[in-house]
Amino acid sequence: MTEKSDLSGCEKDGDIEETIFRLEADFSGKEGGESDKRACLDHALRRRVASVAEEAPAGQAERQLRAVLQLSVKLARSDRCSPTTPIVLLSDSFDALPLDGAQALFAFVEDNVATWKEEMFFNACKNNLLRMCNDLLRRLSRSQNTVFCGRILLFLAKFFPLSERSGLNVISEFNLDNLTAFGDGDGGEDVVEMTEDGEEPSAPAPPADAPDVPGPPLDYNLYRKFWALQDFFRNPNQCYSKVPWKAFNSYTTDVLAAFTGFKLDESSSSHLSKLESDTQEYFAKYLTSQKLLQLQLSDSMFRRFVLVQFLILFQYLASPVKFKSEGQVLTEAQQTWLQETQQTVYSLIAETPPHGKQFAETIRTILKREESWNTWKNDGCPAFKPPVAPEEKAEPAADRAAGRPAPRRRQKRKVGDVLRTAEAKKKFLMGQ
């Protein structure tokens, strides 16, 4: 029905409309049901994508594939091919391209997010799109392809509605597989263990080749406590148990004391400000070698990441989460310690250059909004609906005839009043 020659050259600029016209003529001149014709064209488009990916000169495959994909979208809108065909072609293209080509072609996916959200495409394609993005993420390295991973996740956030339950982590599960291993003086893995009384075992002696770098004195107890805190950040619920809480309290106090005793100045982070305009941010999992601890404590970005982790954990421990068990509640003494330590962390962030005060206020605002997000999830993640404007009532004819003035319209509340009311009730409605 639709032979390979019918689609040859469709990837050339300016030939899409001509190709559609030729296919329309081909459809009308052939026998068979509409579903058979669509299936035949779906197959022809997939063959064309495979041919372009295999035969196109280096550097031109992405442009030619874009043209075939645009053709498939127009054919789907005219009901000449299946609504899922554009996404199937995208999946085939990503499978055939190297990572550099896949990253360039993904711009087509991002540019057409409004198309994928149209009714005819969304319901038919959402699962295929999600599967395609997950397949891409499995090919990528979180450390080497950080930007591309972020682009994919941002696209998914734009594509799916905010109330899509598959992306909400409704029951508040933690990624318990994200383990952080750290080594002892001989390079082996070491995990800080606590006795039943919450006391730690004695630390190993420092190696003879310990580095001599500027910073706080190298303390191997501090090193072990510092990286052991990552296990509490990974699984905050263990803080509700007596022995882990005692360990967390002790480790946090010692680590924050080390931060307080070694303050950074503007000159120590001046190299960061010089590079801000010339480099991209790079987010990686930090190395946990004990020989690097002094250098890491002298790094303002590293310090910020750790301090923000504390704030996120503190907020979770004190927040009413629907799926917490009855026993996962802090005592009054624990709440007092948490509030005092939280202020210490904010002070340390404000003292960390560059732009410490601005960064601290930004984090405070983000966590404040997180309270609204938590309330929304506790309410069952209801779908967001745009507010309906009240209909204006026409002035009664009797009032006009009698010369009576029309009733005054109710004055709209000021934004400041709305915010004060919400703050007093500790409840913010998303979209207010």
UniProtKB/TrEMBL annotation:
UniProt feature, compositional bias: Acidic residues: 187-200
Protein's name according to its UniProt entry: THO complex subunit 1
Species in which this protein is naturally found: Amphibalanus amphitrite
GO biological process assignments: mRNA export from nucleus
GO cellular component terms attached to this protein's record: THO complex part of transcription export complex
Pro residues bias (residue ranges): 203-214
UniProt-listed InterPro entries: THO_THOC1 (IPR021861)
Compositional bias of kind Basic and acidic residues: 390-402
